[in-house]
Structures are given as structure tokens and as C-alpha cells.
Amino acid sequence: MYRQLFFVLTFAICIVSANPIKAVNCGGTNIKVGGVQRNLNEGVRLQRSGQQIPSGDSARALYPHTYNDRDGLNLARTCPGQLWEFPLVKGDQPFKAGEKAGPNRVVFSQTGDYCASITHTGASTPNGFVLCKNVA
């Protein structure tokens, strides 16, 4: 009986903690699953190797960098631990050094798990974020 309960609880935890990657609409920009995956993979690769790349925006931010979840999106509920953000650009290639980062980001955990897609577009503050909408 305990063994069955263990398997049921383990399965339930896996379902609750999984964040499947989906196509999203971020402030009017549709990004396919493959686009989200490519940017996620590049952000995770850079983070794991201890590298950051500069954007071509006037702020010259470095990516990936920590995401502090100050917008009340509560991403830590499904992605515990340190969170990271990386530009989420549309197209066949992930964000590259020197490109404009744009308003969209992919958020991932320290372990490289996908957490969410977020955007500055439509946020209540200039540097705030809102969740992108999943699309079919």
C-alpha cells in the first residue's frame, strides 16, 4: 500500500511541477514552440557556462540575468529556486549578442526548466512584466 501511495504522490508531483513549453502571444507577437525552445536552450547554455551576452539596446543589459519576480507573477510557485530571464525573439535563431532584446523574455530555473514566457508589453510599470498568453 505504501509503495502504491509513493508512486501516486510522485506522479502527482511531476504533473504539478511540469511547465510544458507552448506557443505564446506576447503583446501581439506570436512565437511558436520552437522559438520559445531555441531561446530557452540558448539562455540555459549561457547560464550554465557562466556567460552573459550584451543586448544592442540603449540599456546594454547582459543576458541571461536573474529574474526577481517583482511583478507578482508568482513564478516561484511552479519554478522554485533562482530564476533567470533571457530575451525571447521570434524566428529561427535565438537571441544573439548585440541584437535588440525587445520586450519579451523566457524565464527558466537554475536547473534549466522552462518557467514562463513574459513581456514588458502591457505591464503597469515601464520595467514590469506580464505573462504572455498561450496560443493553440
From TrEMBL:
SUPFAM superfamilies named among the record's database cross-references: Microbial ribonucleases
Q: What keywords is this UniProt entry annotated with? A: Disulfide bond, Endonuclease, Hydrolase, Lyase, Nuclease, Signal
- Gene Ontology MF term list: hydrolase activity; lyase activity; RNA binding; RNA endonuclease activity
Signal sequence range = 1-18
By its UniProt entry, which InterPro entries does this protein fall under?
A: N1-like, Ribonuclease/ribotoxin
Name the chain's protein. Answer: Uncharacterized protein
Q: What is the lineage of its organism?
A: Eukaryota, Fungi, Dikarya, Basidiomycota, Agaricomycotina
